[in-house]
Design brief:
By secondary structure, this protein is an alpha/beta fold. The protein has helices at about 25-40, 40-50, 55-65, 80-90, 100-115, 155-165, 185-205, 205-220, 220-230; strands at about 1-5, 15, 20, 70-75, 95-100, 120-125, 140-145, 165-175, 235-240, 245-255. It has a single domain, classed as Rossmann fold, CATH 3.40.50.150. Helices cover about 45% and strands about 25% of the residues.
């Protein structure tokens, strides 16, 4: 069963939607529209856009998580189930998937049925900024390629800290800032010229992939995100660059 929570917008300043600055109250609906449009082809697009490298990045995330049979994981913005299934296959105990977009959650739930994954996983339509979980209720929190889509990153980080038990582990896999000289220019040309074209052909939605590319450029760089994690109370904060900084895994602990 897919449960739903209503997301509420925030007002008083501007939020980024790609390179566009918009009313924060409008962003959740616009993000939902993007992912509703691409949900059916989201996983295929991930393989095409990264030449399959996203699978290695996610495997590294699971390695750092170190799933255990007694671990309850909250996977946020994980609607299609990629992280959830990997967690369970690696020996994790239970995973709760929360995603803002119902269409993404339905794709994940259908994949779970196809895999006969009926136990150990539950699916919730909900907002990373207002998680439908009690304080100190999960052992670990993951968010893969989702933090840049929330309206208020600091609010989402604070919510992650709130729901983690003492000693709980926060892990964020996200596109980041390229650190290898020369790779940044190649990556920019690939991102702005080729990715929207792939989106147009495969997902039949060029605009959504223009937004996704732009949202990567608006996301905080590695050191800034570490500072913001510390500001909401995470300890032992660090990051690991992947593929020269095209992506990075940020880690923090609830102490």
């Amino acid at each position: 069963m897919v449960r739903a929570m209503t997301a509420q917008g925030q007002t008083g300043h501007k939020a980024s939607f790609g390179f566009e600055d918009i009313d924060p109250a409008d962003k959740p609906a616009r993000v939902r529209n993007v992912f509703t449009s691409v949900a059916a082809r989201y996983d295929i697009m991930n393989d095409l856009m990264s030449a399959g490298v996203h699978r290695l990045w996610k495997a590294t995330l699971i390695d750092r998580l170190r799933p255990r049979p007694d671990m309850h994981l909250l996977d946020v913005a994980g609607g299609t189930g990629d992280i959830a299934f990997r967690f369970l296959e690696a020996g994790g105990g239970h995973v709760s998937v929360v995603d803002l977009t119902e269409s993404m959650v339905r794709v994940g739930r259908d994949r779970a049925l196809d895999k006969a994954r009926l136990d150990g996983i539950d699916w919730v339509v909900g907002d990373a900024q207002r998680l439908p979980l009690p304080d100190a209720s999960v052992d670990a929190y993951t968010i893969a390629f989702g933090l840049r889509n929330v309206t208020e990153i600091d609010t989402a980080l604070a919510e992650a800290r709130r729901v983690l038990k003492p000693g709980g582990h926060f892990l964020c896999l996200e596109f980041s800032r390229v650190v290898l000289p020369g790779l940044d220019q190649l990556y920019d040309r690939y991102s702005f010229k080729l990715l929207p074209k792939i989106g147009e052909i495969v997902a039949r939605d060029r605009d959504s992939y223009v937004y996704l590319v732009e949202s990567i450029r608006r996301f905080p760089a590695q050191e800034e995100l570490m500072q913001r994690m510390r500001a909401v109370g995470f300890a032992r904060v660090d990051h690991m660059n992947l593929s020269g900084g095209i992506a990075a895994i940020h880690s923090g602990w609830a102490i």
